[in-house]
């Protein structure tokens, strides 16, 4: 039997702190990506932007939605087991405990699926890796950002 103090400590160090760290890092990644787009646009010759306003907003929204979905799914996968853990000394049936534990583990496999759903370049990269074409000499020359093969 684990006492309440240990459950609260576990909650802070294995759930709350990593969640805050994830949110902070994802927000930082998003901000850096926005800054990079601005730098690229400002350095284009002839004053032409790489992305016009609507495409830029669409790209930023897609990135924000993707990161938001990743964070929400992380919370949905981890939060239930911690809610049960913090509810007190009630005994959790082993089937429920196993389900909640596996839900937590499944989160690790969901991020690549989410990226694959949102980004064609990720799907192309994954296909390139899984088909072992990454070991070919010209592998580094493959353009994953265009639609032609």
UniProtKB/TrEMBL annotation:
PROSITE patterns: G_PROTEIN_RECEP_F1_2. PANTHER family: HISTAMINE RECEPTOR-RELATED G-PROTEIN COUPLED RECEPTOR (PTHR24249), TRACE AMINE ASSOCIATED RECEPTOR 19P-RELATED (PTHR24249:SF381). InterPro entries: GPCR_Rhodpsn (IPR000276), GPCR_Rhodpsn_7TM (IPR017452), TAAR (IPR050569). Gene3D superfamilies: Rhodopsin 7-helix transmembrane proteins. Residues 1-115 form the G-protein coupled receptors family 1 profile domain. Keywords: Cell membrane, G-protein coupled receptor, Membrane, Receptor, Transducer, Transmembrane, Transmembrane helix. This is Trace amine-associated receptor 13c.
């Amino acid at each position: 039997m684990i006492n309440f103090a240990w459950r609260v400590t576990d909650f802070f160090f294995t759930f709350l702190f990593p969640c805050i760290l994830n949110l902070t890092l994802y927000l930082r990644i998003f901000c850096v990506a926005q800054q990079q787009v601005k730098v690229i646009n400002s350095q284009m010759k002839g004053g032409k932007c790489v992305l016009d306003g609507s495409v830029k907003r669409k790209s930023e929204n897609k990135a924000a939605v993707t990161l938001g979905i990743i964070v929400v799914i992380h919370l949905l996968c981890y939060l239930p087991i911690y809610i049960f853990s913090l509810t007190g000394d009630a005994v959790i049936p082993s089937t429920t405990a196993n389900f909640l534990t596996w839900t937590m583990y499944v989160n690790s496999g969901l991020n690549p699926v989410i990226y694959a759903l949102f980004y064609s370049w990720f799907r192309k990269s994954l296909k390139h890796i899984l088909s072992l074409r990454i070991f070919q000499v010209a592998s580094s020359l493959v353009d994953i950002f265009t639609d032609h093969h």
